[in-house]
Amino acid sequence: MSEPAVKEDLHWSKFKERGSMFGIEVLVFVHKYLGNWIFKVILFPVMIYFYLTGRVARQSIHHYLANLHQHQHDITLTKAQLFRKGFRVFYCFGLAIVDKFDAWLGKVNIDDIDIVNDEAYQSLINAQGSVIFSAHLGNMEVCRAIFSSGENKRKLNVITYNEHTPSFNNFLKKVNKDAAINFIHINDFGPADSIQLKQRIEEGEAIVIFADRTSVNNPDSVYQAPFLGEDAPFAKGPFALAAIMECPVFLMFCVKEQGRYQAYVEEFAQPRKIKRKERDEYFSSLATKYAQRLAYYCQKSPYQWFNFFNFWHSTKK
């Protein structure tokens, strides 16, 4: 490993977000009224600043890239290579903001997206309520276009643990009151939340869970699964919740390749009755399967992984 492990092993939720809602609103204004070219010109020095001043985020991305290249190619990257590739991840993250804006503004439609694995996509469309596992890989918001019009129209409910979600929701409504994504802020998941989500499933809606983040209130409630050559913690909650919902479970990522959005859809699990004594083993197998598929897509789109914290050591508060 050419880059030392990141010393700050704080849980991801303990890192303060750099930036503000005001900053986001300024970027939206630039993108909306001045165009993509001006936006990208402004974006480049902004991302250089965040890359150079964000030591923990920078080292975390270096750790990820070192693991990925060692696992995929059996290559140890030099510090110079890590630095160049690391900035590319940061800049891709900045460019992804453009795609998020376009998705929120309703500028992305189904014709802008190439669906990979049509059979799984048809199963997702035909499902009367579903759980979708995704990750901070690519741009899941773009997938709202799949569910925003025509006979396939339905609401996407995205579970988040971010305390800024209510204000973010209000901001999205200002940008586009018809945005088809509803962010559900859950800090301490309980029976009431389960009932609410179950009702949404029964109404034919989709529940999106980013399963690459551990719980805010139960950070040690995880399964350790191999991920890019090193065991990583994956929260137990998403896999237990998917079973409780008693509906089909899908895997979905949307990345950008050669200027086109690529939506990868997989059938992940079907509803089944699990005996109490077998639940932990079953949920653990789902976590392992998820980690394997996530690693596969990270290797396909290595610069579109946007977790800027020490992913492999993130169970401490």
Architecture blueprint of SSEs:
Layout: H1 21-34, H2 36-53, H3 55-73, H4 79-104, E1 113-116, H5 118-126, E2 130-134, E3 156-160, H6 165-175, E4 181-185, H7 191-202, E5 206-210, E6 222-227, E7 230-235, H8 237-244, E8 249-257, E9 260-269, H9 279-300
Parallel strand pairs: 1-9, 2-5, 2-8, 3-4, 3-5
Antiparallel strand pairs: 6-7, 8-9
Helix pairs in contact: 1-2, 2-4, 3-4
Care to describe what's here?
This protein is an alpha/beta fold and 317 residues long. It has helices at residues 21-34, 36-53, 55-73, 79-104, 118-126, 165-175, 191-202, 237-244, 279-300; strands spanning 113-116, 130-134, 156-160, 181-185, 206-210, 222-227, 230-235, 249-257, 260-269. The strands form two sheets. Strands 1-9-8-2-5-3-4 form a seven-stranded mixed beta sheet. β6 and β7 form a beta hairpin. The longest helix has 26 residues, at 79-104. The two termini are 25 Å apart. Residues 1-7 have low confidence and may be disordered.
Keywords:
317 residues; alpha/beta; 17% strand; disordered N terminus
Sum this structure up briefly:
By secondary structure, the protein is of the alpha/beta class. It is 44% helix and 17% strand. The protein has nine helices and nine strands.
Detail the poorly predicted runs. 1-7
Per DSSP, what share of the residues sits in E-state strands of 2 or more residues? 15-25%
Cα radius of gyration in angstroms: 19 Å
Order of helices and strands: HHHHEHEEHEHEEEHEEH
Largest sheet: 7 strands, mixed
Q: Report the helical percentage.
A: 40-55%
Structural class: alpha/beta
Q: How many strands appear in the DSSP assignment?
A: 9
